[in-house]
Every structure is written in structure tokens, then in C-alpha cells.
Specification:
It is a single chain. By secondary structure, the chain is of the alpha/beta class. Bound molecules: 2-acetamido-2-deoxy-beta-D-glucopyranose (5 copies). Keywords: Cell membrane, Glycoprotein, Leucine-rich repeat, Membrane, Repeat, Signal, Transmembrane, Transmembrane helix. It is found in: Cell membrane. One of its GO terms (cellular component) is plasma membrane.
Length: about 270
């Protein structure tokens, strides 16, 4: 009797262990649907493997690493992946490292990533991501790497990211970002790791410390002063000419009147 109970218990535990995690399954299924893999380098990224991707520490999915039966690392770099990032990535709630760098992924960075409360590394560099950097990333309190360099990201850098006190690497260079660099990132206080100009360069309309002052700005100020002075001078010349013409015309009129008057007047 005891033996059967033990066997039953073991069976139950085993089925429990091999049972899929529904969150990870949703995450992987949607990610594989939103990404495109034209070079077919993600073999084994098949539906049957999403249900139970982990066997101990190893994973049947190339690029995925497991811990306690959950995906904790996704590293799919330089695979010519296209498509976009599924918001369901947020269902991989044990994820500590997400590295999809050096692909051709388009579309926005989903704000839903804020649910990844264990995330320490976010490397989406060298892709074709567009849209704004979601300020919600500041909710991932353990983030210590945000590498978004070489994309098409636009808008301002959210100052909320400065709240991430563990941040030791931050790179948004070579995007289409604009506006001022928040002091919370450009000029970090206390003993927080500081980021130099290399983290911010290559964004045409981004300005502020630690980037060097924009030369173009200085030129345009000069140009504005030049235009102002020039137009001032032109209007001066114009009004002067105007006054001259007016004077000439009235002079002629007066001469004419004088002539009329004198012709009407009898000669004395
Ligand atoms: C995935 O996440 C969404 C919202 O974050 C949640 O509503 C949904 O239940 C999750 N799905 C699974 C299977 O965990
Ligand atoms: C692919 O997945 C199967 C299980 O579905 C596994 O037996 C096999 O080892 C995996 N191959 C690789 C290269 O991971
Ligand atoms: C992000 O990935 C790129 C390319 O794989 C790598 O060169 C870079 O060092 C990574 N960034 C960080 C901060 O580790
Ligand atoms: C950086 O911050 C310090 C103090 O927080 C301040 O004194 C300094 O002026 C700031 N530098 C720039 C370039 O904004
Ligand atoms: C900027 O910081 C990076 C490390 O974050 C370092 O490798 C690089 O040498 C620094 N560049 C300058 C000009 O200080």
C-alpha cells in the first residue's frame, strides 16, 4: 500500500515537473510568432518544445537557458531575425537577461516589459527598433544593463530611467533621439556609475551634458542675428526710399498746384 502511494506521489511530482509553465509557454509561443526567422536558424523553436522547454538547467530551445524549470535567459543574437517583439515577452516573468542584439527586428519596444521584475540585462542593440524608449522600463528595478545602441528609436530619453540605481551600462548611441539628456542619466549624482558621451552620441537632435555643445546651434544663432541685422538694414533702406519718393511726389504736386494757381491768377 505504502509503495503504491509513494509511486503515485512520485508520478504526480514528475508530471508536475515536466508540466509546462503556462506563462513561459505563452511568452515563447507569441515570441516565435512575432519574430521572423528567414534563415531558419531557430530550429527546435517548435510548439511542442514551448510547452516544456526546460529539462533541468538545459533547454531544448537554442538560445534559452533554464533555472528551476523556468526560462531565465534568452540570448538570440546575430541570427538575422526579423519581425517584432511580442508584448507577451512580459509573460516570461523569471527572465533575467534578454539579449536579442544584432538582428533586424523592427517595431517598438513593448512597454509591457515592465512586468519583467527580475530583468537585469536588456540588450536590443543593432536592430531596427523604432518608437520611443518606454519610461515603464524604470519599473524593472534590477536592470543593470540597457543597451539600445544602433536602432531607430526617437523621442526623448525618459528621465525615469535615472531611477535605476543598479544601472552600470547604458548605451543609446546612434538612434534618432531628441531633446535634452536627463541629468538623472547624463550627470548622475553620488557614487552611481556615470555614463560618458559615447553612450549618447549619434543622435542628431539630442543635446546636453555629457555631449559637447552643438556647433550647429552656434551657427544658427549667428545666422539668426545676421538675418535680423540684414532685414533691419533692408527695411531702413526701403523706408528711406519711400520717404524720398513721397517727398518727390508732393514736391511735384505742389509745383503743379502752384502752376494752376498762378495760371488762374490774373497778372498784376
Ligand atoms: C500573460 O500576461 C498577461 C498580462 O501581462 C496576463 O493577462 C496573462 O494571463 C498572461 N498569460 C499567461 C498564460 O500567463
Ligand atoms: C530538440 O528538441 C528535442 C525534444 O523535443 C530534443 O530531444 C533535442 O535534443 C533538441 N535538439 C536540440 C539541438 O536542442
Ligand atoms: C550588447 O550586445 C552587443 C552585440 O551582441 C555587444 O557587442 C555589447 O557588448 C552588448 N552590450 C553590453 C552592455 O553588454
Ligand atoms: C552636474 O551635477 C552637479 C551637482 O549635482 C552640478 O554641480 C553640475 O553643475 C552638473 N553639471 C552639469 C554639466 O550639468
Ligand atoms: C566612456 O565609457 C566607456 C565605458 O562605459 C569607456 O570604455 C570609454 O573609454 C569612455 N570614453 C571616454 C572618452 O571616456
Amino acid at each position: 500500500m505504502g509503495f503504491w502511494l509513494v509511486l503515485l506521489f512520485t508520478l504526480l511530482t514528475c508530471t508536475n515537473l515536466s508540466k509546462s509553465d503556462p506563462s513561459d509557454e505563452a511568452c515563447l509561443t507569441h515570441l516565435s510568432q512575432s519574430l521572423k526567422d528567414p534563415a531558419n536558424l531557430l530550429q527546435n523553436w517548435t510548439r511542442s518544445n514551448f510547452a516544456s522547454p526546460c529539462s533541468g538547467f538545459t533547454s531544448y530551445l537554442p538560445g534559452a537557458t533554464c533555472n528551476n524549470g523556468r526560462i531565465y535567459k534568452l540570448s538570440l543574437t546575430s541570427l538575422s531575425l526579423q519581425g517584432s517583439l511580442s508584448p507577451y515577452l512580459a509573460n516570461c516573468t523569471n527572465l533575467q537577461s534578454l539579449d536579442l542584439s544584432s538582428n533586424q527586428i523592427t517595431g517598438p519596444i513593448p512597454a509591457d516589459l515592465q512586468s519583467l521584475v527580475n530583468l537585469a540585462v536588456l540588450n536590443l542593440s543593432s536592430n531596427r527598433l523604432e518608437g520611443e524608449i518606454p519610461p515603464q522600463l524604470a519599473m524593472c528595478a534590477y536592470l543593470n544593463v540597457i543597451d539600445l545602441h544602433d536602432n531607430f528609436l526617437s523621442g526623448q530619453i525618459p528621465q525615469q530611467l535615472g531611477l535605476l540605481v543598479r544601472l552600470s551600462a547604458f548605451d543609446v548611441s546612434n538612434n534618432k533621439l531628441s531633446g535634452p539628456i536627463p541629468a538623472s542619466l547624463g550627470n548622475r549624482s553620488g557614487n552611481l556609475p556615470r555614463f560618458n558621451a559615447t553612450s549618447f552620441e549619434g543622435n542628431k537632435d539630442l543635446y546636453g551634458y555629457p555631449l559637447p555643445p552643438m556647433k550647429a546651434k552656434g551657427l544658427s544663432v549667428l545666422a539668426i542675428v545676421g538675418i535680423g541685422l540684414g532685414s533691419g538694414f533692408a527695411s531702413l533702406v526701403l523706408s528711406f526710399t519711400g520717404v524720398c519718393i513721397w517727398l518727390k511726389v508732393t514736391e511735384q504736386k505742389m509745383a503743379l498746384e502752384e502752376g494752376k494757381i498762378s495760371s488762374l491768377m490774373p497778372d498784376y
